[in-house]
Structure formats: C-alpha cells, structure tokens
Amino acid sequence: MDTFLQLVLNGLMLGGLFAIISVGLTLIFGIIRLVNFAHGELLMAGMYLTWLGTTKLGLHPYVLAPPLVLVLFVIGVAIQRFILQPLLEARDAHVQIFATVGLSTALINLALLLFGADLYATPAAHVRDPIMLGPFRIIVGQLVMFGAGIAVVTGLHVFMERSFLGRAIRATAQHRAAAQLMGVDVNRIYMVTFGIGAGCVGLAAALVAPVYPTSPTVGTYFVLTAFVVVVLGGMGSLHGAFIGALLIGLVDSLSGFYIAPDLKEVVIFGLFILILLLRPTGLFGLGRGSE
Amino acid sequence: MLTLNDVQAGYGRTTILHGINVEVQKGEVVTIVGANGAGKTTTLRSIAGLVRPTSGSITFEGEPIGKLSPHEVVARGITLIPEGRQLFPFMSVRDNLRMGAYTPQARARMSATMDEVMDLFPRVREKLEQHAGSLSGGEQQMVAIARGLMARPKLLMFDEPSLGLAPIIVAQVFDVVEKIVATGVTVLIVEQNVFRTLNIADRGYVLENGEIVMTDSGQALLRDDHVRRAYLGI
C-alpha cells in the first residue's frame, strides 16, 4: 500500500511538469488554432540555455527560470510574427503546421551542430534532496515542479478570466471577426498567445533540466506526452490540460512500476488511441472555440 | 463626417461595389436600402476595414481610413454592429459588454458607460451573468447593440439589426434604435425593414447592383414611386 501511495505521489508530481508544458500547447491550439510541432524543441532550447547558464555563469537553474520565461516569450512572439503570421493568408491553413514541423527539424539540427549528440547534465544544488512526508519520500525538484504547475495553471486562469487582454484572447478564439470589430488587433493577440505558450516552456525547461539530461531530441519525449495530455483534457481547455496532466503523470508512474518501465509509453499511447476512439473531444472539450 | 468617394470593393475577383458615393454628416441618421446582394453589407464592411476597397477613398473626419485595419477603424470612433449578432457565445453577457469597451478611450469610462447602456436595456441587466450563447435571438440582438454602444462610438453602423427576429422583437429593436438616435449619435443603418428605417432616417440611399441609383430625404424616398414599388410592395 505504501508503495502504491508513493507511486501516486510521484505521478502527481510528474503531472505538474506535464501541466506546464501542456498548458502552453493547448493555449496555442485553442486560440491560434495551430498545432505547434516545435513546442518540444522550444523546451529543448530552453534546457540548453539552462545548462549554459548553470555551467558558464554558475547560476542555479531556478534562478534562471524568470529570464528563461522572458527569453522564450520573446522567441515565441518572434516565431508568430515572422514565420507564422506571413503564412496566415496562405491558401491552405496547414502550411502553418508544416512550418512548425520545419522549425522543429531546424532546431534539432541546430542543437546537433552546436552541442553534438551527447547528453548534458545540468548541475543544481539541493534539487535532488529528499523530503520525508511520514513514510513517503519526494525530492525537492518534484515538489517545485508540482507547485509551479499549479501556479501556472491558476495564474493563467485568472489572467484569462479577469484581465482585459485575457478576455480579448478568449474573444478572439470564440469569434475572430467580432473581436476585430471590438478593436482587438488579432495579430497582436496571436503574438502574445504564442509568447505565453513558449514562456510556459521556458519555465518547464528550467525545472526539468536539473532532473533530466539535455539532448537535441529531449523535447520529443515530453511533447509527445503533452499531446496525449492535451487531447485527453480536451484541446484548448486549460483546466482540462491540468487534470489530463495529473492523470497521465499517474499512468506514467503506476504503469512504469506495475507493468514495466519500458512499456509505460505503450500504456500512455494506448490510452491516447482509446480517447480518440471513445471521446475525441476529450474530458473537458466542448468543441470549437469553447475556451 | 464620413465620405465614401467612388468606392469599388468586392471579394476576390468579384466586384460588388462599382464606385459608390455616400456621405454622412455629424448627427445624421442615414440609411442604405436595397435588395439582397446589392452591396449594403459590403459597404459597411468596407468602412469597418473588413473589406479593402480596390479603388476610391473613404475619409472620416477628414482623414483617409480606407487602408486601416478593423481595430484601427474602431479606435477612430466607428463601430459596426454586425449582421447576425456575432456575440462571444461562451462568455457572459457582462464580458461581452466589457469587450465592447476594449479601446483605451472606451475602457477608461467603462463603468459609467455600462450604467448608461443598462438604462437603455433593462432586460439585458437581468442576464448579465448568463452565457451570451444561451440567450434567445432577440436578447442576443439587444446585447449586440449594447456591446456596440460600449465603445462610445462617434459613428454607429447597424447591419440588418432586425434580421431573423419575430415581429414583436423587431418592434423592440426599432424602439431601441430610435432611443439611440435620440441621444444624438451619428448612425448609418442598413435594414431590410425599409418602411420603419426610412421613417427614422434623415436621408437614404438606394443601392442597386452595387451602384447608388437614388438619394433623398427619408420621407421623400417613402413617397417615391420606384421605392414604394420595389421595396415597400405598394
């Protein structure tokens, strides 16, 4: 029983990390109606930046989190402005998706060129220190991810519901033309949205780098899982992504122990196929434009 | 205040407006009447910046606005209440109204405007917390008009405000339009209910196949044989 509860605890903590990555992905999908295949590579870029900051500047990864969020936000805005926005008028909307696939490939190869295929471990003091909660053991890094996940989802929720900009972002998703008639600069909304999505990944990168080795293809693992989370939660739904992330974290942790560590992805993607067959709108999806 | 000079516009290769001239003076209520497909909506969409004129010029308060984006046109003080309501369905009525006051000028005076607008729409006040998508068609039209007023526009444009509504609701919509006109806002209105619209309009334009064929005062157009035969069925 203790083992089971320990695994549940581990799963929830992992879910916090998935939540941060998935929330950015689902936001970009829900608002811009774009599947961002370069999301994982933004995470990868953030992890290399974290590694550089810790090894070259001697800073703790957590100290690097705020500047990384800012840097990734700016990169996100630039991607939307200079790569995706010019394609908005393209005859086929899928061209934008191909552009993110291309960006993903380009970033992976850029990383190979700069850093090679080696794994880089990011040093971080105290991140692996254990905390005992009665019979259960969690490490500091897990707890931080979980807390940050809750903070990001809560913060984004409040931002979307209460602020003028957040309201304008939701309005644009629900009715783009009507939002323009209210005086909303839709291109600016898309830039901000992509920026926020990328900024979430910047935070995730600083938190994950100390506990997971950095390599050019590291993003793929996390973002494939994030796609499952987003579909499970309902594409475009923020709280759906949060619940979905916790569920997938649990599945990851439990199946890794009770079935086999190398089969946990089989379980996760099996679940993915089941969701698509049984409830393609996800747990909290209301269909188009509901966020 | 607003001048359209020889404006041509359309979608893709299809030209809808073949060079029209329209003028709206400050404080006036002007209407454009015409059959379906004559180009009434395209005229309003050109002014709002949703359609870019292929030639001709649109000026507002002496400045050209024909090449501005829709959000820049709104910032100049022109608001379009679009055909078919176009509310944000999954937002509360209150949030829809707040979106109406999105421009910085309108935002600064939002709560005062909200009170004024609610006085005009007591029924909307009761529904403020409901999702806009859950309201009836008539209630949605009232919210759409209220949302347009939230911008405190200098020029308010209506596109078919009574389209698809039950006759009793149409009467209510016209009552509201008349109340808004009485506040002194400049209005450009496109409506299929030609009789009631010409009655409240200072001037009217008759648009046929993308060209203005006639213009006169609202009352004169009501008495005109061509207008009576073509649009009033008399």
TrEMBL record, chain A:
Q: How does it sit in the membrane?
A: Multi-pass membrane protein
Keyword set, alphabetical order: Amino-acid transport, Cell membrane, Membrane, Transmembrane, Transmembrane helix, Transport
What is the species of this protein?
Teichococcus deserti
What coarse category fits the chief subcellular location reported for this protein?
Answer: membrane
Instruction: Name the GO cellular-component terms.
Output: plasma membrane
Protein name as it appears in the record: Branched-chain amino acid ABC transporter permease
The entry's family comment says: Belongs to the binding-protein-dependent transport system permease family. LivHM subfamily.
Q: What Pfam family is a match for this entry? A: BPD_transp_2
| Lineage per the UniProt record | Bacteria, Pseudomonadati, Pseudomonadota, Alphaproteobacteria, Acetobacterales
Q: Which domain of life is it from?
A: Bacteria
Residues that span the membrane, as ranges? 12-35, 65-83, 95-116, 136-160, 189-212, 218-235, 266-286
**Coiled coil region boundaries:** none
GO biological process entries: amino acid transport
Subcellular location field: Cell membrane
Q: Does the keyword Chloroplast apply?
A: no
GO molecular function term, any single one: transmembrane transporter activity
Automatic annotation (TrEMBL), chain B:
Q: Which PANTHER family match?
A: HIGH-AFFINITY BRANCHED-CHAIN AMINO ACID TRANSPORT ATP-BINDING PROTEIN LIVF
Which GO terms fall under biological process for this protein? L-amino acid transport
Gene Ontology molecular-function annotations: ATP binding; ATP hydrolysis activity; branched-chain amino acid transmembrane transporter activity
**InterPro entries the UniProt entry points to:** AAA+_ATPase, ABC_transporter-like_ATP-bd, ABC_transporter-like_CS, BCAA_Transport_ATP-bd_LivF, P-loop_NTPase
> In this protein, which residues make up the domain named ABC transporter?
2-234
Q: Could you say which protein family the record assigns here?
A: Belongs to the ABC transporter superfamily.
Name the source's superkingdom.
Bacteria
- Record's Gene3D superfamilies? P-loop containing nucleotide triphosphate hydrolases
Task: Please give the Pfam families that the UniProt record associates with this protein.
Answer: ABC_tran
Q: What name is this protein filed under?
A: Branched-chain amino acid ABC transporter ATP-binding protein
Its keywords, alphabetically, are: Amino-acid transport, ATP-binding, Nucleotide-binding, Transport
